[in-house]
Amino acid sequence: MRVVIAEDAAVLRELLAQMLAERGHEVCASVGDADALRAAVAAHRPDVTVVDIRMPPSHTDEGLRAAIDIRAEHPGTGVLLFSQYVETKYATRLLAAGSAGVGYLLKDRVANIAEFTDALERVAAGGTALDPEVVTQLAGASHRAAELAPLTGRERDVLSLMAEGRSNAAIAQALFVSQGTVEKHVAAVFDKLGLPNSHDHNRRVLAVIRYLRS
Q: What is the pLDDT of residues 188-206, one digit of tens each?
């Protein structure tokens, strides 16, 4: 992958760059503010960006606003938001700007290098990667939503794991069922949510967005 990193903490920024480089990825630029991020993406056209939500000068939502701009101006570039805490309003704003090629992880996930790089690769490939804690808070009320009422408890479990960006094989492992069983649940979710018969990846993204927004 070709990656641009935007993180105002210099130590973490260098750690991310070193970690990705050691795994064979190209870090095109490593910057500390939103304006530099926009410029780096325009110059390098990376596959994916890692963006801290809170950056100078106000340390509020500069990174998020830059991420939304990048999604609009460079739709082929994935965006993985990075935050110290779960901030659901920011995750919702990012998802509203486009459902494919987005992610939101807590910074603690860097400690698990395999988990972090797997999430980044999914986002770069046009998928989603949402931290389980983000999913829990975003969808806390969704189980009561009328739109999801037709789903069984197991189908909701599958949809929740889909929202984390997990593959059918990973969902099967988490729920201790066969992959074939998961595929049947996924098909039932698509059918009950009335999603059009198109590419399964697109339907997965639509199902996740429906789940989170409900």
A: 999 998 887 766 667 888 8
